[in-house]
Amino acid sequence: METEAQAGWDFFDSVDFPADGTDDPLGRAPVRHVVTAIVVGHDGAAWLPRLNEALWALERRPDRLIAVDTGSTDETAELLANLPGVEPVVGLSARTGFGTAVARGLDAVGFAAIPSAAGPYGSDENTPVREWLWLLHDDCAPAPKALERLLLAATINPAIGIWGPKLRMWPRDRELLEVGVTTSLGGRRDTGIEPGELDQGQHDTMRDVLAVSSAGMLVSREVWEGLAGFDPRLPMFRDDIDFGWRAAKAGVRVAVAPESVVYHAQAAAAGERPLAGTRRHAYQLDRAHAYYTVLANAPGKLLPLLILRFLFGTVFRSAWFVIGKTPSGAVDEWTALLGTLLAGGWTKARKDRRRLNKQPHEGVKHLFARSVTAIRHSLEDTGSAITERLRDAWADEPEEQVVTTARRARSTSRVAVDQPRWRRQLIRRPFLVGWIALFVGSLLAARSVMGSGVLRSDVMPPPHDSLGDLWHAAATAPPGVTPPAWLGQFSAWVFVALGNPSLATDLMVLGAVPLAALTAWSFLRKIVLDRMARAWGATAYGLSVFVGGAVSQGRLGTCVAAVVLPLLAMAIHTVTRRRRVALQGSWRAAWFAGGCIAVLVAFTPSLGLLAAVGAAAGGLLARGWSRQSRQLLFSSVLGLLLVLPWTIELVLHPSRIGQEAGGAPTAAIGPGDSIGRLLTGIPEGAPVPWVVGIPLVVVALLSMLRGSRSKFELLGWAIAVTGLVGTLASSRLGGGTGPLMLLMTAGWIGVITVTWDSVGRSADMITRGVLAVVLLTTVVSAGWWVVRGDDGPLRREPAQDLPAYLVSAQEPPLNRSIVVASKQPDQGIEFTLVRNGGPRMGAVEAEAPAAQSQSITEVLAALGGGGAGDEAERLAALDIDYVYLVPPLDPVLVSTIDSVPGLNRSSANDGAAAWAVEVRADGKSPMREVTHGIWRILGIVGWLLTLVFCLPTARRTVAGTHARRVA
């Protein structure tokens, strides 16, 4: 090769030039090394100039350089011809794989001739000579000392026949790619390098490995010819592992010389250029070659287990791709496995390699990756992929409008370094500090409702005992009754809460304040720049859940709505925002918005239907029949379809629109309530006086005096007015107004937050005074919350107010049924049928119609009228075992029941009375339940599809590649 180098060696750093020294430090006999280098190129014009520069910079250059072009369509052939000292370029077809190209290049040109003069390691012509083959890719660049250090390692360790360098990220990064490579018997390629790990000398130990990368591999001629080169059935990917595995079986040692550094772009694996030698996708090719490598080289006794392992792995990865909306990845998985198994090439390879089986598998077993390690890396990669894709999917994009420098500067707080640490954190991360305060406050506020038992209130029945019981309640109901849709959705939250319905209820009700604040902050950070403004907005929104009485009254539906409402706003914002790209809207966000609307319709029908109609109408009126308006309309329709048949139930029984999860309407504002309570959204029975909400309303009204208003401020006003009108309409129709009042309060808070963001750090004393009033109101509300606590109507008690023996009698194998009745003065007898653990969540919505319970009503009416003497037989025929009267007791009714034959007194709690039905009747006709199986199956399928389309798309990546950084 020429001794003159071209200009431009600035590609290399001083770290690429280790200390000089080419002699064996142990003083062993010198060896003359003759090196034949071969470069295979395919559409590598983007990388070959760097390789050319690197070859010029080599201090120890190869004795012969062979270049092979495999059907490139760019300037690769011309660039290969310009490499220093290169032989005439060998041209091959684009279907030629890497190993075949190397073999064809050697056939066409041959190895370098052994010179008669002594080499650099001695002057004696009798010095032993070793011939080497140095493999290079067109997208790699060896450091100046790369070949010299490989040959020095070969001199020190003459028993090793294959050497590999340390690979770093292209073009000159300190990030590590490989320091040797291995595989598990499941086919997972393992480099032992963590993603993003920097080279700090932690792997600079010369050691034996299973294989080294073909980018920079130095292999002795006798080993190359003895192993017949790379397997032609592996045009690329895994050919290096297969070659190293065959070498290990043949007794040839493979080692890595970490002082030798080669930079590698991994262009084909990263999808930066088309593949040479195949038309298949890189992922499919990599998987197929992984299966082939293991099947062709693994011990025969392990093949049945390995094939079964491949099958299970393919099933799980296929499911991952289907969930990730990449069905082509699932097709690649099955094509790779079945194609490899059925093609039979691996069986022929096993026959051809029998002559190499000089080393048993137990002798090289330590070179392979452990299966446990492979599983751990797979889980880590899956978690990292999910996190990365979710971050990419929901990453905020800049609006079309240009944010001024002054306004952007307001979002960045500069703090003097001499400030106390707590003050610096408060200024830089106000919401983090505020959220921690809300979290601690929620623990303190819940002090009076902690302990044994379950949370319950007048509007929230006790939770179910298990996830199975909850799911049974979500799927069954009396004939003609639709089970509430929110039970099925709540089951998913219970599953997250370790399958404990009581724990799930505690987290949602008692943790509603910090959870709502967190979701509100997630939305506000997309539209509000000022940190203090959005921190206040999120905190105030979270506290509004307590101020409105949702926590202390145990209104589960409003608590859930408070958490979901900001998520819906965030999804709608993602759909409607203007982008710099031509494609508008986001179908992923549209699916997510549909899921949020479905949750709102299930837990708070009035708020959910209002959100569905508002999203569809707003999109059509503001955008016309555009892509974004169609996405909003799709979200509305999807939200209504996901809660079928509950949507039909709401149409047939409009009175249920005013309910929320738990049963009867709550927090109703009647026509006679004060205008103050109506505007502030603090109903009668709320834990704070309604005057606490006056500052928010006044400040929101004062914001109207500003000369200009942003679209988000106008939107906040529209939401507040909509909530106000909805509250008035619902109160006069006898429905619940709690969720609609929450919507109104959210509108007031949104207006103030956006206004605060607009005025920023105004020096006007009036503005500062108004903001101080807002902050003082928030502090007072928070203090009231912590001091008062979450108790009130909400309490922690046993799930049933019945004696212990009646509670246990409802459990298998007895399965007793109990009529719990009560009689108020001058009123009829009201009753509840208790069985299977008693009335639990959803029992009010799924209550049997009066016609179905007419028989029990008639029996109780007969008892109230003096009795006919046959009530015990009639109760027994209805499969009722006990009658339980709750206080206050009617003496006449108690005397009548005592006189009925077959009804015998049992023990009861203080002030109550109980009777056991001693008569046994044949042909019992208990109240039946119908399982709505088809709707539950359709609901599960619908929610799974929604979840899939909400998630980001899964990527097909070749194992062992790292994220690319463009030079």
From TrEMBL:
Q: Which residues cross the membrane?
A: 431-450, 503-524, 545-569, 589-620, 632-648, 687-705, 714-734, 740-759, 766-787, 934-954
The answer to whether keyword Transcription applies is no
EC number(s) reported in the record = 2.4.-.-
Q: Name any one GO molecular function.
A: glycosyltransferase activity
Sorted keywords for this record are: Glycosyltransferase, Membrane, Transferase, Transmembrane, Transmembrane helix
Q: Which InterPro entries match?
A: Glycosyltransf_2, Nucleotide-diphossugar_trans
The name under which this protein is listed is Glycosyltransferase
